[in-house]
Specification:
Elements lengths: L21 E2 L2 H4 L4 E6 L19 H7 L6 E2 L9 E3 L15 E4 L5 E6 L3 E7 L4 E7 L1 H5 L2 H13 L7 E4 L9 E3 H10 L7 E5 L2 E4 L1 H11 L7 E3 L14 H4 L5 E7 L2
Parallel strand pairs: 3-6, 4-5, 9-13
Antiparallel strand pairs: 1-2, 2-14, 5-8, 6-14, 7-8, 7-9, 10-12, 11-12
Length: about 260
């Protein structure tokens, strides 16, 4: 296998992003045995023609991670709750599978999710080791996909929630994310903490903080608060750095991706 010297770029401090193709969360950069990245608008993928995926969509990520492109795995995201465990047997077929979370314990397989406002969450078990990537829009958030992914990692790999490290990537923030009563009804049904992640705006509309909701889900299921990290940047506010579907309509995608080092 031909490899390319990794060119993974790092932020100087949490929440600060340079004009780079890739950004990361420093707390995870210090974790050994794993590499992760959130692509920016500069390193992201422009709007697809007819929404058709291509095998080399994330070639730059493969080069940065020093792996072949067929080892960068994404799925057909449908705002659901399906979770796929990726291994050497199914790695070539996952791209067409309906799923919103991918997990693996195979070194050299990079699992990722594509977003342009929805919440990307990366998970890392430093003991097993094992990794996961979760795509959480509001529908998957109320279906508690991030908690179900933690459960699945425990079932598949023996990953204990208390030792997992989580990274919440760029996503639309509550200052820009307004939802109607139909969505809020589902949020109230799903979460006893709904009042901590929403603010009324009047006329049956609400500000909804999806990154905070997913963080609280992670804490509920047993992750330690010091192990949950967030980039803390709004995709809609920072369209100079990120794509935003809500602000732009048809637009590109970023990839949030994580891999156990070979």
């Amino acid at each position: 296998m031909n490899t390319v010297k990794p060119r993974h770029k790092k932020c100087a401090v949490p929440g600060k992003v340079r004009d780079d193709e890739f950004v990361s969360i420093p707390a995870l950069d210090n974790a050994t045995g794993m590499i992760h990245a959130f692509t920016t608008r500069q390193g992201g993928l422009g709007a697809r023609n007819n929404d058709i995926k291509h095998p080399d969509d994330w070639k730059a990520v493969a080069q940065a991670f020093g792996i072949c492109i067929d080892r960068v795995v994404t799925a057909d995201q449908v705002h659901g709750e399906n979770i796929v465990a990726v291994n050497d047997l199914n790695v070539l077929n996952v791209r067409t599978v309906h799923a919103d979370a991918l997990i693996t314990d195979v070194p050299g397989i990079a699992v990722g999710v594509e977003t342009a406002d929805c919440v990307p969450i990366l998970l890392f078990d430093p003991v097993k080791p094992a990794v996961g990537a979760v795509h959480a829009g509001w529908k998957s958030t109320v279906k508690k996909i991030v908690q179900k992914t933690v459960h699945r990692m425990h079932e598949e790999f023996g990953s204990e929630p208390a030792r997992l490290i989580a990274a919440i990537g760029p996503a639309i923030g509550p200052e820009c994310y307004e939802v109607d009563e139909r969505v809020m009804e589902r949020v109230r049904e799903a979460f006893s903490f709904w009042h901590k992640v929403s603010t009324p705006r009047g006329n049956d509309h609400w500000s909804l903080d999806l990154p905070a909701a997913n963080k609280l889900e992670l804490l509920q299921i047993g992750l330690a608060e010091q192990n949950v990290h967030a980039l803390g940047l709004c995709t809609s506010c920072r369209r100079d750095l990120f794509y935003s579907f809500r602000a732009e309509g048809k637009t590109g995608r970023m990839l949030s991706v994580i891999m156990i080092k070979p």
